[in-house]
Design a protein that fits this description.
single chain; 216 residues; mainly alpha; two-stranded parallel sheet; 11 helices; elongated
Length: 216
């Protein structure tokens, strides 16, 4: 998430978590110690040695790939924290004959960034790009019908598609707001929801009992 982009090695910890216990004992001591400190498994008065962390991650990936093909999957790469991104770039540039593939998803659009220097890391010849477009009008109709039980007229569906710009969570929230109305939306009427998803969620929380709101 965007908030985690400021937490050092947060993404690396997520990647390592399922295999950390098995991977650490096989690493050279300096690499193991650096990773333990970086991933908050050990204390140290010295600053984290990012170079040792990078070599430790690379060693762990190579070790895992010797036993079976390995896929590194990174979702929402635009929110990668800086230290994790640098370690990943370091490792990807040095992987060649290993059974390793990397799957990275990132938002596109104005000001978007991938978070990794993939063109430099793996080279254009090995890089495959797939751009996912927003749902079609027909697909959006099927989604709202299946999840909310709501069949919207075409003029309303077009308006929802334009407002959500591919954000399906937002589309479902708008559909629920429309489903709770006594009267259907007229062609010239604005959608009865706030302009941003944040405001929409805030309003939903405000409708909950006080004890639930306090817990949230």
């Amino acid at each position: 998430t965007e908030a985690e982009a400021r937490l050092s090695f947060a993404a690396l910890a997520d990647l390592f978590d399922p295999v950390l216990t098995a991977a650490l004992p096989e690493l050279p001591i300096p690499q193991r110690q650096a990773l333990e400190v970086a991933l908050l498994r050990a204390d140290s008065d010295a600053p984290v040695d990012e170079r040792a962390v990078a070599f430790g991650f690379l060693s762990a990936v190579r070790s895992a790939a010797r036993w079976s093909p390995l896929l590194l999957a990174i979702d929402d790469a635009q929110w990668l924290d800086g230290p994790s991104a640098r370690v990943l770039d370091f490792a990807l540039r040095r992987l060649d004959g290993e059974q390793v593939r990397v799957l990275v998803s990132a938002r596109t659009g104005s000001g978007a960034r991938v978070g990794l220097d993939l063109e430099h890391d793996v080279g254009e010849a090995r890089l495959r790009r797939l751009t996912l477009d927003p749902l079609t009008l027909a697909s959006l109709h099927q989604l709202l019908l299946a999840r909310v039980g709501l069949s919207l007229p075409r003029h309303t569906l077009l308006k929802v598609q334009r407002v959500v710009a591919g954000n399906m969570v937002y589309a479902l929230e708008i559909a629920r707001a429309l489903a709770s109305r006594a009267q259907p939306l007229t062609p010239g009427e604005a959608l009865p929801v706030p302009p941003t998803l944040g405001e929409l969620v805030t309003n939903r929380i405000a409708e909950l009992p006080a004890s639930t709101r306090d817990a949230l």
